[in-house]
Write a structure and sequence with these properties.
15 helices; 5 strands
Length: 291
């Protein structure tokens, strides 16, 4: 059996690889394909071990090794009863080896989860839907990150809730920028102070200001949507549809005068961050408390 596991979702690839390995009775031979040389291929594919009657070879990142990848199909044809699993993030689909694999191998592609797919996956892991949705908003849709945070929640021994996620999980900077903007409009001073205390310890103020600005840009797009859906606006602006969808509720609560006011304050802050010696986080805090 020749098996190609490809794509950028390394979590799903690892799960699939584990399932293949679990069904194999012998020892799995693992190699970094990027470090192989052509003269190593005969021993790799034609060699037999003394005690093993079955072989499972796992090759990672071989497509990065152009000299080996260009002739790999020839050696895969000679593999006989040896099972081979190739793990590739972005194999060149124009290459001779990939075209051979299309005809002769089992190919499974693992794409990064979309936000709604990540939510559904968490629900399948027994997380309540509203908590799953909040967690994805909080940390994104990367399955490794979600799996780690899910383990924290389970190990706490407490009932999963949005409050527990806030207590145990550190949000992404983008999620924090949205939460801070939302808290500013809600006049939630305590949440502003709490989130700033956390994010200022690990993030660059100038970069975080950029995230805040992008949230205000998304807010402006949805405030002037004029009945257009987030996915329609996303196509013409390049802003991720999930970002637009998430900020829609806030846009409905914001009138044009408020939007002009915050854009003006944001422009002033941009100028002050470049020209004033005051701590940038102090200036960002002042902006949020005065929206």
């Amino acid at each position: 059996m020749i098996h190609l596991l490809s794509g950028e979702n390394s979590y799903e690839i690892q799960q699939r690889l584990d399932r293949v390995a679990a069904g194999f009775s012998g020892e799995v031979e693992r190699f970094d394909g990027s470090e192989l040389s052509i003269d190593m291929l005969p021993d790799l594919f034609m060699g037999q071990t003394l005690f093993a009657t079955e072989r499972l070879i796992v090759l990672r990142n071989t497509s990065e090794n152009k000299s080996v990848w260009s002739v790999l199909s020839e050696w895969l044809e000679r593999a006989g009863d040896t099972d081979v699993v190739l793990v590739e993030a972005k194999p060149d689909k124009r290459s001779r080896t990939y075209k051979w694999l299309q005809k002769n191998a089992k190919i499974e592609e693992s794409k990064p989860l979309l936000h709604h797919e990540a939510i559904n996956w968490l629900v399948q892991q027994s997380l309540p839907r509203e908590v799953a949705q909040f967690l994805v908003e909080y940390v994104g849709a990367d399955q490794w990150r979600l799996q780690n945070e899910l383990q924290k929640i389970k190990l706490s021994g407490r009932e999963p809730s949005i409050e527990l996620v806030r207590e145990l999980v550190e949000p992404t900077p983008q999620a924090t920028s949205f939460e801070l903007l939302d808290a500013a409009f809600a006049r939630n001073r305590r949440l502003i102070e709490d989130r700033l205390a956390v994010v200022s310890r690990s993030e660059n103020a100038q970069m975080f200001f950029g995230l805040l600005s992008s949230q205000v840009y998304a807010l402006a797009l949805m405030q002037g949507a004029d009945g257009r859906r987030p996915d329609e606006i996303a196509k013409s602006t390049g802003v991720h549809p999930y970002v637009l969808q998430k900020i829609t509720a806030l846009a409905r609560q914001t009138n044009l005068e408020q939007l002009r006011d915050i854009v003006g304050k944001l422009a002033d802050l941009d100028e002050n961050l470049k020209s004033r010696s005051v701590d940038p986080w102090v200036q960002i805090r002042s902006l949020l408390l005065n929206i």
